[in-house]
């Protein structure tokens, strides 16, 4: 299951509107699921935590990734090309660069579940004729 920036942030920030739900989900699922994230999500989360909660919160986030040995998947050139096509396949959506590259990477490695609060994970479609949907948790 891929963990998106919004989920990481919600777990860390007690004032976030999704904090309790995120904390409960993470606590319940972390022991049984293999969470993964991407290099760009880590960078985006670090920037968000650092700017809103301070550098110590960002360092704690990174320490947690290291302590839990959360795999950090890295983008490949093929993901950038696929992300470019995603941008053009969904012209009516405000998918960010990180969204598009994340969707491309997820499709390439076969991940169809995400711990996220971003509605774009509900909108994005992939596979033949873009008929498959990602599963976003918590529901």
Task: Explain what the structure shows.
By secondary structure, this protein is mainly alpha-helical. It folds into two domains: 2-73, no CATH class; 77-111 and 118-134, no CATH class. Helix content is 56%, strand content 12%. α1 (5-12) crosses α2, α1 packs parallel to α3 and α5 packs across α6 (97-109). The two termini are 14 Å apart. The mean pLDDT is 96.
Q: What's the total number of strands? A: 7
Taken as a percent bin, the fraction of beta residues is 5-15%
Number of helices: 7
Low-pLDDT stretches are none
Major sheet summary line: 3 strands, parallel
- N-to-C series of helices and strands: EHHEHHEHHEHEEE
The separation of the N and C termini measures: 14 Å
Query: What is the share of helical residues?
Result: 55-70%
Provide the number of structural domains. 2
Radius of gyration: 15 Å
Can you give the mean pLDDT?
96
**Structural class, please?**
mainly alpha
Layout of helices and strands:
Blueprint: E1 2-3, H1 5-12, H2 19-29, E2 37-38, H3 39-53, H4 55-68, E3 72-73, H5 77-89, H6 97-109, E4 113-115, H7 120-123, E5 125-126, E6 132-133, E7 135-137
Helix pairs in contact: 1-2, 1-3, 3-4, 5-6
Quickly list its features.
139 residues, 2 domains, three-stranded parallel sheet, 7 helices, 56% helix, globular
Q: What would a concise description of this structure say?
A:
The protein contains seven helices and seven strands. With 139 residues, it is mainly alpha-helical.
